[in-house]
Specification:
This is XdhC family protein. By secondary structure, this protein is an alpha/beta fold. It has helices spanning about 5-15, 60-65, 90-95, 115-125, 175-185, 200, 215-225, 240-250, 265-275, 300-315, 325-330; strands at about 20-30, 40-45, 50, 80-85, 105-110, 130-135, 140-145, 155, 160-165, 165-170, 190-195, 210-215, 230-235, 255-260, 285-290. The chain is built from eleven helices and 15 strands.
Length: about 325
């Protein structure tokens, strides 16, 4: 499953390539609480079809009512982007289902040009990070490939919104837990690769939509060139498969590197890395283990929920309380 931005952009390109009028809506500012973050996008076709989201649904309904009939919308208003603000008053916030005190501003771009849209999708599909600059007076779009993610910015003349390639998850091990975690990762927009050189595990894999590899995990880590939108989770309990791959992953920009295991096994892994590979506590501080947040999970699907929750928290820059850490919580039991 592709990330949501790519799904929205592909739908928009399909509509425009078919000669249909369509607009792109982007959340550019929020005040107080808001249902969707700055940078969120949705596309609206002239027939009222919608892909993506800028709110919990009420604002989408309002946009459909006002702009769903783009065939009848005055053409002179379709050249320059247009700002809309929702939730200015308490009554309006209630009407549009916004949280108390929530206000958001949306930029509408009408009949987005096909050529830069095609180029943007091509760059993203190739794994590049791209900033899309929109001229607020003319609607003209320019693209720039960048090395590091940048926050959305807007001034009187230009909107700059960064789009990234898919988030990637490498799961080492093709067991039952991996199947549940892979399924959740796919639904969260990750591109998932399963690595397991053991045929007896790999041969029974059931989840579709993933890349299945028989390589040694450490070789695959090097081959994938993990970046800041990548994460690695080792689930085999086998040091011969997990350790070297984890060590290589720790030397990349992967935002999350972790391994399943008990507190005792996790500590033993750290000691192996320090004693046999010359690492220090500081150089392996990024390693998560035991992985997951403490929710009292016992079964494979519950453990997968725990692991996925921790990965999303790290991805979204959320600092979890110490009480949510598996090792800490179990010390209290």
């Amino acid at each position: 499953m592709e990330n949501l931005d790519l799904i929205v952009l592909r739908a928009l390109l399909d509509w425009r390539s078919a000669g249909k009028k369509a607009l792109l809506a982007t959340v550019v500012r929020t005040w107080g609480s808001s249902p969707r973050p700055v940078g969120s996008i949705m596309a609206l076709c002239e027939d009222g079809s919608v892909v993506g989201s800028v709110s919990g649904g009420c604002i989408e309904d309002d946009l459909i009512r006002n702009f769903g009939g783009l065939k009848d919308f005055p053409l002179e208003k379709q050249s320059a982007p247009q700002f809309l603000k929702y939730g200015v008053t308490a009554d309006e916030a209630h009407r549009f289902g916004l949280p108390c005190g929530g206000t958001l501003e949306i930029l509408l771009e009408f009949n987005v040009a096909i050529e830069p849209l095609t180029q943007l999708i091509s760059e993203l599909t190739s794994g590049r990070l791209v900033t899309r600059h929109t001229d607020l007076k003319t609607g003209a779009v320019t693209l720039k490939v960048i090395a590091q993610p940048e926050a959305l910015s807007i001034n009187e003349t230009v909107l700059s919104n960064t789009f990234g390639p898919e988030y990637r998850m490498l799961i080492i091990g093709a067991g039952q837990l991996s199947e549940y975690l892979a399924t959740m990762a796919l639904f969260n927009g990750f591109s998932v690769t399963i690595c397991d050189p053991r045929e007896e595990y790999r041969g029974n894999w059931k989840v579709t939509g993933v890349t299945l590899s028989s390589q040694m995990p450490d070789d695959l880590v090097q081959e994938m060139r993990l970046d800041s939108r990548s994460c690695v989770v080792a689930l085999t309990h086998d040091p011969k498969l997990d350790d070297l791959a984890l060590l290589d992953a720790l030397q990349t920009k992967a935002f999350y590197v972790g391994a399943i295991g008990s507190r005792r096994n996790s500590e033993a892994r750290r000691q192996r890395m320090i004693e046999h590979f010359g690492y220090t506590e500081e150089s392996i501080a990024k390693l998560k283990g035991p992985v997951g947040i403490y929710i009292g999970s016992k079964t494979p699907p519950e453990v997968a929920v725990s692991v996925m929750a921790e990965i999303l928290a790290v991805k979204n820059g959320v600092t979890l309380p110490q009480s949510a850490q598996v090792s800490y919580a179990k010390e209290l039991l």
